[in-house]
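Could you join me in thinking about how sequence relates to backbone shape in a protein? We need material for that, and I hope you will provide a protein of your own picking. Once you have written the record down, we can walk along the chain together:

…
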Amino acid sequence: MKAITDSQFDDEVLKAKGLVLVDFWAEWCGPCRQLIPILEEISKEMGDKVKICKVNVDESPDKAAEFGIRSIPSVFLFKDGKQVDFKVGLNTKSTLVSWINANI
């Protein structure tokens, strides 16, 4: 799992080949902190299938605004640089794994 900023977003997400999950989050957000260990597990188990990046909305507000983030956590899925889907709120590991697998 990799923390990225506004300036890294294009290279890490939009120019990436394959599946990239982007978690828009903030340090002060309780559900966001609950999602961290879930995403870490998914990253370890599915690292060859999906790249996981985290964008702190307080430190990187431009991309959060560009993608219309109004509630966090917001998790976006990109495939070959194109947004394919998103989920808002805390989701279970099984929900996220199924969602990723459906988009591979």
About this structure: The first strand starts at residue 2 and ends at 4.
